[in-house]
Write a structure and sequence with these properties.
The protein is mainly alpha-helical. The protein contains 5 helices and no strands.
């Protein structure tokens, strides 16, 4: 922690039940993932781990169209749309991995044996 007094202020705000958004560094506009919702981060993590939209939809219990929409909004937040030629999904996953340091938080899947 670089600023102990800021941490104390944030804890006091939580204990008082007041607004704590001012203490959320993860929502600062200059942070690459600040514009993503938790749902978008989860979907991008799953995409970055190699899952298809169909697999992500099944895991999240939603339709493939819902995942397509979520990924599309994540593309816009990550400013990927129109930035590259070719597969925009790949570009978005690459951008997501860049800003997360390559960490998806999802364990690697074991290859299925036949």
């Amino acid at each position: 922690m670089s600023n102990v007094s800021l941490v104390i202020e944030a804890l006091d705000a939580v204990l008082r039940g007041t607004r704590v958004g001012d203490f959320r560094h993860d929502r600062e506009p200059d942070r690459p993932l600040a514009g993503l919702t938790r749902k978008q981060v989860r979907v991008m993590r799953l995409a970055a781990s190699g899952q298809t939209n169909s697999q992500i939809a099944q895991e999240c219990g939603v339709s493939v169209n819902a995942i397509d929409d979520t990924i599309g909004r994540a593309f816009q937040s990550l400013r990927v749309e129109g930035m590259v030629e070719g597969n925009v999904r790949v570009a978005a996953v690459r951008r997501f991995l860049e800003v997360t340091g390559g960490r998806t938080g999802i364990p690697a899947r074991r290859a299925e044996t036949a």
